[in-house]
Amino acid sequence: MEVVLYTREACELSSRIRDLLQSKGIAYREQVCSGGLPEANYLAMAVTISRVPIVVIDGKAIPANRRAEIEIAVGWIGY
Fold first, then answer.
1. 65 close to 8: Cβ distance less than 8 angstroms
2. CB 57 within 8 A of CB 66
3. How far, in Å, CA of 45 to CA of 13, rounded?
4. What is the Cα gyration radius of the chain?
5. How many CB atoms lie within 10 A of CB 68?
6. 3-state helix, strand, coil in the chain (%, to 5)
7. What pLDDT, in 10s, does the model give residues 8-35?
8. What's the sign of the alpha-carbon dihedral 72, 75, 77, 79?
9. What is the pTM assigned to this prediction?
């Protein structure tokens, strides 16, 4: 599973999602985006990201405020 976390500096939601992934032992790569927008060279995969923080799990972009979707995508809950 590949997890990429696009974050902003000094962002409470970015910190919370980072802490959540770490607490669950999920390996991830973090890209800090200045101004809340990802730079084009960060997006090697075919996803559309308008604002961060956002988690990309195996190419699927999920806004960081949708915790249940993130948990399902990494297999913590659901099927």
1. no
2. no
3. 23
4. 12
5. 11
6. 30, 20, 45
7. 888 899 999 999 899 888 999 998 887 6
8. positive
9. 0.76
- Of the candidates 71, 3, 20, the residue with the CA atom closest to the CA atom of residue 79: 71
Six-digit token string for 78: 């659901």
Q: Residue 32: beta bridge partners?
A: 7
Tokens 């669950």, located at residue: 24
How many CB atoms are closer than 10 A to CB 3?
17
Structure tokens belonging to residue 60: 């699927």
Q: Which domains does the chain show, CATH number per domain? A: 3-73 (3.40.30.10)
> Between the CA of residue 61 and those of 69, 73, what are the distances in Å?
10, 10
User: Of all helices (H) and strands (E), which one includes residue 62?
Assistant: strand 60-63
Enter the tokens of residue 15. Answer: 């910190």
